[in-house]
Amino acid sequence: MLLDLSRLRSGVERLNRRIEPDALEPVEDFRVVSPVSLTGEVRKDGHQIRLKGRLTATLECACSRCLEPFEVPVAVDLDLVFLPVSAAGRRSPLSGPDRDEDGEALTEDGLGVSFYKDDALDLSEIIREQFVLALPMKPLCSPDCRGLCPVCGRNRNRDSCACRAEWIDPRLEPLKHLRSES
C-alpha cells in the first residue's frame, strides 16, 4: 500500500485512509482485528516529506504471563519525517561511536528521519512500525494476571492446581546433606 508522492502538487495533502485488517501483512507479535484509521496530512517541502496525523486500530496479542490472546486499543499520534534514500549519505557525522547497521556514523538530523525511494511511501510499513512501537514490552491481559503454573502449565486465572512451585538449586543440594549429618 503505497502513497504516491509524485502526485503531491500543492505541497500539502489531506490523508484519510481506512485499511481493512486483511490488507496488512501478518506480524508475529500481534494481529490487527479492527480496521486501521490513518488520518492527517502529508506535507512536501522540496524532497523532505512530513507526515503528521493519527493512527488508530485494535490489535490482538498474547499475554506475557498466561499466553491468552487479548485486545489492545492503539491510538498513536504521528509526526514523521522522510527524505529520499539518495540524501542519506549527504549528512555530517556526529562525534561518537554510534553507527547505523551499515557501519556509517549516525547523524544528528538523521536520528528521527526515515527514508523513501521511487517517490513513494510504504504506508503498510509505517503502520506496522508504529504498532510495534505502541505495544507494551510485556503485554498483560490484566494487571493481576496470575500466569501459568510453572509445574503443570495450567492457566492460574481459570484453574487452580495443587502443585508446589518449590525449586531447589541442584548446585546447593550437597549442602543440604551436610546439615543433616551433623
Number of individual domains: 2
The tally of helices reads: 2
Unreliable segments (pLDDT under 50, ≥5 consecutive)?
91-103
Helix share bin = 10-25%
Largest sheet: 6 strands, mixed
Strand content: 25-35%
Mean pLDDT: 83
Task: Note the run of SSEs as H and E.
Answer: EEEEEEEEHH
**In oligomeric terms, what are we looking at?**
single chain
Distance between the termini: 75 Å
Structural class, please? mainly beta
Instruction: Please compute the radius of gyration using only Cα atoms.
Output: 25 Å
The gross shape turns out to be elongated
Number of β-strand runs: 8
General description of the model:
Helices cover 12% and strands 34% of the residues. It is mainly beta and 182 residues long. It folds into two domains: 2-134, no CATH class; 148-182, no CATH class. The strands form two sheets. Strands 2, 3, 4, 5, 6 and 7 form a six-stranded mixed sheet that branches. The protein has a two-stranded antiparallel ribbon with strand order 1-8. It starts with a strand and ends with a helix.
